[in-house]
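Quick one: structure for this chain?
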Amino acid sequence: MVDTEGRVVHADFVRGLGDLQMSLGDLFRRWPALADGAMQAKMRELVAPAEAIFLDVKFEAELIEVDEDDAAEMLADAGIEAPGLEQLAKAGYEALGLQS
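Got it. Here's what it folds into:
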């Protein structure tokens, strides 16, 4: 497998990233304190220069169940600029050097 810059990326490494993602998700479910600001700052350092995006799956599930106005109000009340999927898409586009 070759990445976008022509470097060889081993499948084991890619699988390892998936395992890490699942492990981090499990950590957040088991220990909600890991989602605090200080811990998020540490996590951001770990994945730098990539962007770290933190999602509250329960909040995201609730968000898609309400109308657009209520969703905007929920986001504003939570201090979140955009829904998680929108954040992920934006980060993906930026990582790939694409424009939406």
